[in-house]
């Protein structure tokens, strides 16, 4: 049983490590040599270039300006300064809304924490149940427990306070959630309306085109849409299975990297040509001249690529029965995406096309039938998923007993990749949906393996088997009883994972090391240096489930052990500042789903809320307050009704594109640009990226994206002056001006 | 414990009463005076008129042709002779598909019964568990039980037979269900495609039109659709709250009936003018001259109706924020019905309009907001519904103890009306959806109150309370153990409800009596006589749940006590013949939903199947075959996957109208009738029926329907010769030719 002193020591250690991380970051970010690690977003947007001004050579690598060290905490107000609309323009709506999850945590838990400390803590504290039971049974207890519900005597009338508080917390949470859902839905519609023209606004993905003996897929698609959407059909692009080609190109790129490495090595030390072994990972096999070997390999691959490119274009086996169909108007596309086309509901399936850069091309080549099977397998996997995770826990405790914790740590590190692979196997078509799916899985894993297992293992692990076989209404009781006892454990967890962990995030230790390694071994040109940057992204698939764990802890402990709440609040505030800084300066989001993830976020908070209500019910029923059960059962019912209401009221904004909006934008556009050549604009929008690079360099695709960004209203980029002047952003670039 | 002898006696009694009913029917239907009771459908279609040929006066009432009595069972082949396509033309798709439910029962249970008798019965019979336990414990057992699973010893290897059979039955049921779903979906699409032009193909119901300060609802609707569906919008009809007016008209009609009655009475006995009391139901109050009183009442109501009609047309309070919007093409309507219109998903809600005659006008006047509240109340009602029904069972057993069964019988009689009222309260907009909703409720009631309560009450009623509090996985065991013991009870139930009850249905005792009463007291003109007919309809809300109970019994007992199966088969065959006869000759379906109910039917059979699998699992786990549980758990998982597959594959045909179909029909129509004035056709299609009767008589609406029928291809009606010649139907009117 931890006392305030123990908690204090743990807090001290964790605060110290958090401060160390933050100071290290503050120091490292001021060094020009690390500029590309800590401000890659600005480089990618073309608003910042490599330092070129003359001066002391060393100042290219080390910051010699002492004054700047005095202002080392400046990044905090800088991160908070950029207003939300500019943030949306700068980093996209996904990122801006992602930050609102942290804000939502602050909004929910500030009043909850205040109320709990003002009312529940005194009510809990002014009892002496624990003191008595210590005297009688020699049960030890901690000061933390004195603040929790455990200190209320059996059958006390004081439990009414907790019930009233549970109601208050539920209403406040729902109220905040509703407001937030409404705000995000409005932001999404606003964003979609104000956005520049994008190919996906006009395009629908059609799948399962039925085979036709007389017509090719392309002809079949064209005829079908000319007949059934005669006034709206514009053009289409058949989906091609170019997975092998993409693989070859990737391989060639890797060989090219090795060639660059060897050439650089040779240029630095011309005395001896580098050699390499041809076998597995260069560990054994014949020893050859590395540069010659890689050059010949590249030639071989170039030839294979050319052949494969020809084959893909002509071989009918590579043509999938799917196509991106573009329409003359947003209205036409909205109609096609939302309606059923054919009397056989498994053919001519239409859905909105994702943004070209959001598409996960590899899965497009999966035939629809096998996709259904894959999904079904996915479903069947889901049922025993929980069980497997629990079994896995047995293995875990076994491993913990015999092997060092490092293996568990490695497992936890690779887990997101495993989950992502599972989602990829299920055949989702866009990166955004892949990440959303993985997030759900990771959330379940977190819930079971971090939350449940921690709660039960610490108190009644030996009863796990009986727990699995006991009656359903016993489970909330078992968990409920265990919850207050685990408060100190979770406080420590929050400090390690939520405080020190978040502070570590801003340090970017891994990208820092990798950047300097690459910079030393591979970088020859400015372009190479740009590629060596690894800005990363929000990582919705792991980031969001992590936040959700804190929502869960906060809601579960709010009425039980309010001591936990301030720790959670510190996490939300710290994480908000850190991730706002990262989103502004570092992350480069791969796609823009216009906050399509919000229904998931909302739903998970709701499920955490319902879980917390059930647990409280179970706990109180063991505390001689069984008469409270009928009053508490109302809460989940109300919460579920609330969720149904929200789903009906706000979710359509995330699923459909209202015709009214589509028509409005069409009309506006027609008035503004009467001579727009939409067909030319859409013709090649959905060509597989491997064909896009046919003529130009690999930058082609990025450039296109940049052009589009450039046209944007909110982001004042200056592409002409790229790499020359570090252009000032409107408000937030004070920190970036400090450096060169 | 019933023996074969007991069952034989019960069977004898029930077969006897069934035969009595059938003979009585065969006799009564041949009397010309009952012609309108047993063949109303033909009268309503205008294919049969009152007997007008000269001859002996008495032959107008009594059939004197002895030969026709010899062929009294002729109605059976007659009922079976009409081919399905003609049946669809004659009675609509709903009726034809409704009959397929019985056919489905036959298709499922014939092979199941054969297999069970060939394999399971010998396996069960060749044990002596029951004989031994009789010798040891003096437990009585019946011969029926010797054929059931109870006769297999504890832990026997023979249970594998039952497991294999459970798999076989599941696969066979699913196979048949899938085939049937596919067939019905195809029939529905075929029907929708071959149907003549109907207003609902072009019309969408728009609800929750947002209030506008500057525009009336009508203007607002027109502008919105002119802007957002510019190429497709044609016209619209605002929904008017005319409930008060409809009530007044109904009241006037009732007074008119009384007036007719008194006039007829006076004309028969001119010696004394009839009098009546003005009070409650004519039981007390001032005594007045009945004819004068009713005449003045009618005059008062006529005036009130005229005033109300004016008020409704002008008062803005009577105009609901809803409208029927018609489009220029089916394509336009299909698009509008399937898409979201506005960014606020709670305004401008669109859905397909039902057929005009299917619309439940009264609920159209409910504002959408209050509708949501009503639905929510409906949902909250659903949760404690089961509990209430169980409580109701306590009341029931209480009543049974003290009051005669007649009160329970009355309760069961009024139950469908109560359920229908609940559905009406929930605000469904069409009669078909009201009936579907009531059917669901009635099914749940049947399941709990007839099935579960019978099973548990007979064996462990005193344990009901503990049953409610026991762990979830104990429930299948408790029910499973009780199931074999109740086989004889259900056999008797099937014979009473399923054999005698169905045979009673064909006799139409209630309509027979009512028709003659009305005929005597009210009928003056041919039109009155037509109104005095009460053809009734299928009654989906009570009929379908009743069939479902037999599916449930059949599936549950198939692997447990196969003796039950032949009894169920007899029910299905008998009911099929009887209802086919009734549908051809009697029922007059009020609406045509194109078999929209099939997904419900399918879903309920699936849930019965899953229930039967769980029960078998529970039963076997108490029989020392616990190792079978993992093998049996696969079955519900497979069945649920199958249900998901069916839902994805076939349900869209019942929900959406594919654009391809819509476009095809539009194109065809445009080619055939290039000068069609669609606007004139649709202008008044969705006017409230009370306004339709403004000019013409009440027949107006029916006539319109008949006109539409007349245009049909499949039904060869001859309206010109109506009321004159009893026109022969293609094949099925041999019986009707016998009579005049």
UniProtKB/TrEMBL annotation, chains A, B:
GO terms for molecular function: calcium-activated cation channel activity. Its main location: membrane. Residues 375-620 form the CSC1/OSCA1-like 7TM region domain. Residues 201-363 form the CSC1/OSCA1-like cytosolic domain. It comes from Dorcoceras hygrometricum. InterPro entries: Csc1-like, CSC1/OSCA1-like_7TM, CSC1/OSCA1-like_cyt, CSC1/OSCA1-like_N. The chain crosses the membrane at residues 6-28, 101-120, 402-422, 442-461, 549-579. Signal peptide: none annotated. The keyword Transmembrane helix applies. It is found in: Membrane. Residues 7-180 form the CSC1/OSCA1-like N-terminal transmembrane domain. It is a multi-pass membrane protein. Keywords: Calcium, Ion channel, Ion transport, Membrane, Transmembrane, Transmembrane helix, Transport. Belongs to the CSC1 (TC 1.A.17) family. Residues 729-740 have a biased composition (Low complexity). It holds the Pfam family PHM7_cyt. Residues 697-740 are annotated as: Disordered. This is Calcium permeable stress-gated cation channel 1. GO terms for cellular component: plasma membrane.
């Amino acid at each position: 049983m931890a006392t305030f002193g123990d908690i204090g020591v743990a807090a001290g250690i964790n605060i110290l490590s958090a401060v160390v991380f933050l100071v290290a970051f503050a120091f490292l970010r001021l060094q020009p040599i690390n500029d590309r690690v800590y401000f890659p977003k600005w480089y990618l947007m073309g608003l910042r270039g490599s330092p070129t001004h003359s001066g002391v050579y060393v100042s290219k690598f080390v910051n010699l300006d002492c004054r700047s060290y005095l202002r080392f905490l400046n990044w905090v107000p800088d991160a908070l300064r950029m207003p939300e609309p500019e943030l949306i323009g700068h980093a996209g709506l996904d990122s801006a809304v992602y930050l609102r999850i942290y804000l939502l945590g602050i909004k929910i838990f500030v009043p909850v924490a205040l109320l709990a400390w003002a009312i529940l803590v005194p009510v809990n504290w002014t009892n002496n149940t624990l003191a008595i039971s210590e005297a009688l049974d020699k049960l030890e207890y901690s000061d933390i427990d004195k603040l929790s519900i455990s200190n209320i005597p059996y059958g006390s009338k004081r439990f009414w306070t907790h019930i009233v508080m549970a109601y208050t917390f539920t209403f406040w949470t729902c109220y905040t959630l509703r407001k937030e859902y409404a705000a995000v839905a409005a932001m999404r519609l606003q964003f979609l309306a104000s956005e520049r023209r994008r190919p996906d606004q006009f395009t629908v993905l059609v799948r399962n085109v039925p085979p036709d003996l007389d017509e090719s897929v392309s002809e079949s698609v064209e005829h079908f849409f000319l007949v059934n959407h005669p006034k709206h059909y514009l053009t289409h692009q058949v989906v091609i299975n170019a997975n092998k080609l993409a693989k070859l190109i990737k391989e060639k790129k890797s060989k090219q990297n090795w060639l660059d490495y060897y050439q650089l090595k040779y240029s630095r030390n011309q005395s001896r040509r580098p050699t390499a072994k041809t076998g597995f990972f260069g560990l054994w096999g014949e020893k050859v001249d590395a540069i010659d070997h890689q050059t010949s390999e590249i030639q071989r691959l170039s030839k294979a690529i050319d052949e494969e490119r020809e084959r893909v274009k002509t071989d009918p086996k590579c043509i999938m029965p799917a196509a991106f169909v573009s329409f003359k108007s947003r209205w036409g596309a909205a109609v096609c995406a939302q309606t059923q086309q054919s009397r056989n509901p498994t053919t001519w399936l239409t859905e909105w096309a994702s943004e070209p850069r959001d598409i996960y091309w590899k899965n497009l080549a999966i035939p629809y039938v096998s996709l259904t099977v894959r999904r079904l397998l996915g479903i069947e996997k889901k049922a025993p998923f929980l069980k497997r995770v629990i079994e896995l826990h047995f293995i875990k405790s076994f491993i913990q007993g015999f092997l060092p914790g490092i293996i568990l740590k490695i497992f936890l590190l690779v887990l997101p990749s495993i989950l992502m692979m599972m989602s990829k196997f299920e055949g989702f078509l866009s990166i955004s949906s892949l990440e959303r799916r993985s997030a759900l899985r990771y959330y379940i894993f977190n819930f079971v393996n971090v939350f449940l297992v921690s709660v039960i293992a610490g108190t009644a692990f030996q009863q796990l088997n009986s727990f699995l076989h006991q009656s359903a209404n016993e489970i909330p009781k078992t968990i409920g009883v265990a919850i207050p006892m685990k408060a100190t454990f979770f406080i420590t967890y929050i400090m390690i994972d939520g405080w020190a962990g978040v502070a570590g995030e801003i340090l970017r230790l891994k990208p820092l090391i990798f950047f300097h390694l690459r910079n030393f071994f591979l970088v020859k040109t400015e372009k190479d240096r740009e590629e060596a940057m690894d800005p990363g992204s929000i990582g919705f698939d792991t980031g969001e489930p992590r936040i959700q764990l804190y929502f869960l802890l906060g809601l579960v402990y709010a009425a039980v052990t309010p001591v936990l709440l301030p720790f959670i609040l510190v996490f939300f505030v710290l994480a908000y500042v850190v991730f706002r800084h990262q989103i502004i300066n570092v992350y480069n989001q791969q796609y823009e789903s216009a906050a399509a993830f919000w229904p998931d976020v909302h739903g998970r908070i709701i499920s955490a809320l319902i879980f917390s209500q059930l647990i409280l019910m179970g706990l109180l029923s063991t505390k001689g307050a069984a008469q409270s059960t009928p009053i508490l059962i109302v809460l989940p019912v109300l919460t579920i009704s609330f969720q149904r209401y929200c789903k009906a009221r706000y979710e359509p904004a995330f699923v459909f594109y209202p015709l009214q909006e589509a028509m409005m934008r069409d009309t506006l556009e027609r008035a503004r640009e009467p001579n727009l050549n939409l067909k030319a604009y859409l013709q090649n929008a959905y060509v597989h990226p491997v064909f896009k690079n046919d003529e130009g360099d690999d930058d082609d695709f990025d450039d296109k994206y940049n052009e589009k960004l450039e046209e944007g209203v909110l982001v004042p980029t200056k592409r002409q002056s790229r790499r020359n002047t570090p252009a000032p952003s409107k408000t937030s670039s004070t920190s970036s001006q400090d450096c060169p």
